[in-house]
From TrEMBL, chains A, B:
It comes from Duganella vulcania. Gene3D superfamilies: GntR ligand-binding domain-like, Winged helix-like DNA-binding domain superfamily/Winged helix DNA-binding domain. It comes from the Bacteria. Residues 2-69 form the HTH gntR-type domain. The lineage of its organism: Bacteria, Pseudomonadati, Pseudomonadota, Betaproteobacteria, Burkholderiales. GO terms for molecular function: DNA binding; DNA-binding transcription factor activity. InterPro entries: GntR_C, TF_FadR/GntR_C, Tscrpt_reg_HTH_GntR, WH-like_DNA-bd_sf, WH_DNA-bd_sf. This is FCD domain-containing protein. Keywords: DNA-binding, Transcription, Transcription regulation.
Length: 220, 220
DNA sequence: GCTTTGTTTTGTGTATACAAGAATATCCGG
DNA sequence: CCGGATATTCTTGTATACACAAAACAAAGC
C-alpha cells in the first residue's frame, strides 16, 4: 500500500510491540500527526485500524489509549493461542508435504544449535521460524492469519517474559516431541503437545502479573 | 457509543449480512454518505473498521468492495470455525456450572420443540442460542468473542445454505451427542462431536460453491 | 481545608476543501 | 471503422476548519 495510514499502522504497531508505547498510554492524535509529519486524518484512520485489531482502545470523545490487558484477559488469550497452535499442529501432521517436513526439521535443528550455543535471542528468533513452519503445514491460510494476529497482539506482553532458568532446554525438548508427532502423522498427539507447550509459556503469566503493575506505572 | 461511525458500522454490517450489499459490490463513499445523511469522514472510518473485520476489502486509491470469499477461503474459515466451537465445547465440558448446564439443556429442548414443529426458521434461531450456551460455558470471553466474530463473518454465506433434507433432525441428533458429552464431562468427545457438527455444515460448501457465481453476477 | 460549581482549555468528531491517481471518454491517425 | 494517446471526469486520500463534549482548573461557598 502506498497510503499513509498503512505505513503509519505498521510503525505505531511496532512501537506498541516493542513497548515504546506502553499499555494504558494516551495516544494524542495531534501529537502523533506532528511526530510523523502528516495531518490528523491518517492518524485517526490508523488508530481505528489498531482499535479493530485490539491493540488500542478508543472511547468516544475520550481518545485512544494503548490497550491494557489484565491478567484474566492474558490467560484467556494464551489459552486461545494454544488452541490455535494445536490446531495448526493437528492439521500439519496430516497435511505436510515432504518438503515442508524438511523445513520443519531444519528449523528444529536451528533451534538446537541456538540452544547449544546458549543464545537466547537467537533461540527466540529460530523458535518463531519453527512455529511458522508448523503454521505453514496446516495449509489453511485463514488459520495462519488468525494465529499470527493473536501472536502479534500478545507480543507486547511476551516481551516481558523473564528468561526462565532452563527454559531453552525445556522448550527444545517439547519441540522434539512435537516434531516426532507431526512427522509420525499423529495429529492428536501433536495437538496435545503443542497446546501444552504454548500454555506453559502462558502459565508464566504469574510472572507477567507480577510485572503488570510496574508496567502501568511506567505508562502513567 | 454515540459516534456516527459506530452506528454506521452496525447498519452497513447488517446490510452485508442480509445480503443487501452483495460480495464484490463497490461501496461508494459519497453515495453512502448521502444515503445516511452524513459526510464522507464517518463513512470512511466505518469502511476502515469493516475492512479490519474482513467484511470489506479496501484497495488503495480504488475504493472499497464487499469482501468476496472464494470456495477455498470459505472452507478454511469453516475449518477454523469448527475448531473454535470444538474448543468451546472442550472447555465447557470441564467448566460449566450447574446453572449453565441447565441453560444448555433448556436450549437443547427448545431445538427439539422447533424440530418437532418442523419450523426451520425457529430452529435456526434456537440453534444459535444452543451454540451460545456452549460458548458461555467455556468461561473464556476472548474465545467467545473470536468465535462470534467468525460466525458473523460467515453469516452472509450461511444465508445461502440450502435447506437440506432432514438437516433439522440430523442436526438435533448431533446436538444430543454434544450435550451428553458436555454434561458427562468428556471434553475430548464434546470437541470431536462439535468439530464434526460444524464441519458438516461447512461441507455443504459444495452447494455454496454452486451458488457463488450467481451471487457474484447479482453484485455486478 | 475541602467540596463544589462555573469557566477555560484541550482534544475529539464531523464537515468541507483540496490534491492526486485511476477510470473513462474523446479525438485523431491509420 | 478501429486502436491508441491524451484529456477529462470521477473517486479516493489528505489537509484544514469548525463545533462540541469532556477534562482541567480556578474561584467561591461551606
Amino acid at each position: 500500500m502506498t497510503t499513509h495510514s498503512a505505513t503509519l499502522r505498521e510503525e505505531i504497531e511496532e512501537m506498541i510491540a516493542i513497548g515504546e508505547l506502553k499499555p494504558g498510554q494516551h495516544l494524542d492524535e495531534t501529537e502523533l500527526a506532528a511526530r510523523f509529519g502528516v495531518s490528523r486524518t491518517p492518524v485517526r484512520e490508523t488508530l481505528i485500524q489498531l482499535a479493530s485489531m485490539g491493540l488500542v482502545v478508543i472511547r468516544p470523545r475520550r481518545g485512544a489509549i494503548v490497550a491494557e490487558l489484565g491478567p484474566q484477559q492474558l490467560v484467556e488469550m494464551f489459552e486461545v493461542m494454544s488452541e490455535l497452535e494445536a490446531t495448526c499442529g493437528r492439521l500439519a501432521a496430516r497435511r505436510m508435504t515432504p518438503v515442508e517436513q524438511q523445513a520443519l526439521l531444519a528449523a528444529h535443528q536451528a533451534c538446537q544449535d541456538a540452544r547449544d550455543a546458549q543464545e537466547p535471542d537467537v533461540y527466540y528468533y529460530k523458535n518463531e521460524l519453527f512455529h511458522e513452519a508448523i503454521y505453514a503445514g496446516s495449509h489453511n491460510q485463514f488459520l495462519i492469519e488468525q494465529t499470527r494476529n493473536l501472536y502479534r497482539r500478545l507480543r507486547p506482553y511476551r516481551r516481558l517474559q523473564l528468561r526462565v532458568r532452563d527454559r531453552l532446554s525445556t522448550s527444545y525438548h517439547e519441540h522434539d516431541g512435537v516434531v516426532q508427532a507431526i512427522v509420525g502423522g499423529d495429529g492428536e498427539l501433536a495437538a496435545r503437545l503443542l497446546r501444552e507447550h504454548v500454555m506453559i509459556q502462558g502459565q508464566r503469566f504469574s510472572d507477567l502479573m507480577a510485572s503488570l503493575p510496574q508496567l502501568q506505572r511506567d505508562a502513567a
